[in-house]
Amino acid sequence: MKRKKKKLKKVKLICFIIIFCLALLCSIKYISKKNNKNIEIANTEIEEEVKFEEEKIEETSKLEEKLKTGKYLKQDGLPVLMYHFFYDKTKGETAKDGNYIEISSFEEQIKYLAENDFYFPTWQEVEDYIDEKTELPEKSVVITVDDGDPSFFELAVPIIQKYNVQATSFLVVYWYGNRAENKEKNVSYQSHSYDMHKGGANGKGVMLSWDNNKIKEDLELSSKVLGGANIFCYPFGHYNENCFKVLKETGYKLAFTVEAGRVTKKANKYKLPRVRISGNTSINSFIKKVE
Ligand SMILES: [Zn+2]
């Protein structure tokens, strides 16, 4: 009887040891699996962070690199060039008015900017410059082209890409919004309204006579179609104090008129002037306008 009891005790002990060892093995496996997973998550997080930092560095270094020279944009400010339409005389095309630029003249101008190492700030950098959060390099310029006319895409965009400069197309979205889908290299798509490029009361654009809800709807729609556009250009250059308010409320950061001048620090961000380039602007007068 005593021997049987002893044997049973022994079996129980062996069973206990086996179960204990199994449990220990399982828990070690589980912990190491969990650790591996944690390590994997941590690794991807680090990788993503590094990637983000690299992108940030790449984005800022261009401007920082330029500013290292200590040569900043002069007090008279940043020239934001204004273009409209283009034509090609070798194809027998002619200028309909002063807003038409012969494409070889345009190429001469863009070549000048590229060869003289002009800097093309992003819209964020322009805003920061106005807010006095950053300086801009000595030779800085912005190219804007109003409306989104086919002649811009067919004639001017290939030149913009050839010389690797940056330009903004202010699209009348109702007319030419689908152009933005092509996502042309070196081109930023911003708003020239969805459908406010038409006459309203008193010979002014409709933006001055529509009620604010209608204006807001138009602004929001153009921004949405263009994938978050937040820079505006007044149709016909017409604006009033109310436009500033509605633009601000709909999230637009900057708005351009057709008034002549350079963008300076502390400028009214909803009443920014530009430098008009017309068909008869010679290369010498172009150089004076950008230098
Ligand atoms: Zn226009």
Structure description:
Strands 6-5-4-1-9-8-7 form a 7-stranded parallel beta sheet. It has helices at 2-67, 103-115, 123-130, 150-162, 173-176, 212-225, 241-249, 283-290; strands at 80-83, 85-87, 100-102, 142-147, 167-171, 187-191, 231-233, 254-260, 272-276. The protein has 8 helices and 9 strands. The protein folds into 2 domains: 1-68; 74-290, Glycoside hydrolase/deacetylase (TIM Barrel, Alpha-Beta Barrel), CATH 3.20.20. By secondary structure, it is an alpha/beta fold. It is elongated, with a radius of gyration of 31 Å. α2 (103-115) packs parallel to α4 (150-162) and α6 crosses α7 (241-249). Helix content is 46%, strand content 14%. Bound molecules: zinc ion. Residues 146-147, 192, 197, 235 line the site of zinc ion (ZN).
CATH superfamily caption of the largest domain: Glycoside hydrolase/deacetylase
List the domain count as a whole number. 2
CATH architecture of the largest domain: Alpha-Beta Barrel
Shape: elongated
Which ions, cofactors or small ligands are bound in this entry? zinc ion
Note the gap between the termini.
Answer: 112 Å
- The Cα radius of gyration reads 31 Å
Question: Residue ranges: pLDDT <50 for 5 or more in a row?
Answer: none
Order of helices and strands: HEEEHHEHEHEHEHEEH
How many helices? Answer: 8
Q: Biggest sheet, strands in spatial order? A: 6-5-4-1-9-8-7
Round the mean pLDDT to the nearest integer and report it: 89
Assigned CATH class of the largest domain? Alpha Beta
How much β-strand is present in the residues?
Answer: 5-15%
